[in-house]
Amino acid sequence: ETNWGEIAELEEEHEQEKDVMRPQLKKDHVVVRSCDLPKDGRELYFGGMTFDDLSQIKHQGKRRKAIDERKLAYFDLVQRFGEVTDFRPKWRNGFMFVAFSSPDIAAQVLVQLSSYEERVKVHRLMKEEQTLRRRSTKITPPPSYYVRWPKDMKPS
Questions:
Q1: Could you give the CA distance from residue 15 to residue 11 in angstroms, rounded to a whole number?
Q2: Could you give the percent of the chain with pLDDT greater than 90?
Q3: d(Cα 156, Cα 135) in Å, to the nearest integer?
C-alpha cells in the first residue's frame, strides 16, 4: 500500500530545494494546475514508461517508495522544458499525456526527446542530480520511453 504521507513529505522537501510547480499524487493520478487553453499542438504522448527495473528491490516498502519517486521523476522530466498545464499519466499502462503552455514548447520537447541519444543525455543529467542530492539514482526514468504527438491531435 502506498504511503501518501511519505510522498507529500518528499514533495515538500523537493519544493524547498527547487521553486517549481509540483504535482500532487493522488492514488494513480497526478493532479496539476490546469488551464482552459485548447490542447491543440500543446499535448504530447509519452509511451514505454517502465518500473520493471525496480522489481529488483526486495523490500516491498522500499520498492513502493522507489516507484512513487519515479512517478515524480517523470513529472520532473517533462517540466524541465517549460510549464506543464496538464499531466495525465496512466502508470499501469506505461504511458502519459502531457500538455505544455505553448505549442512551441511541445515541439521543442518532441524534437529533443525523439532522439534516443538525447534521452540518454537527459537520463545521465537526472542521475547526476540525484547523486548530488544524495538520493538513489534508481528512481531516474530509463531512456527507453518515447514521445510523439497524440494520434488524434497533431499541430496545424
A1: 6
A2: 54
A3: 42
Q: How far apart are CA 29 and CA 128, in angstroms?
A: 27
Q: Is the pLDDT of residue 28 over 50?
A: no
**What separation, in Å, do the N-terminal and C-terminal C-alpha atoms of the chain show?**
44
Beta carbons of 67 and 55 less than 8 angstroms apart: no
Residue 100 is given by DSSP the state E
Cell of 82: 517549460
**pTM of the entire structure?**
0.72
Rounded CA separation 131/25 (Å): 24
Q: Determine the pLDDT at residue 73.
A: 93
What's the DSSP call for residue 134? T
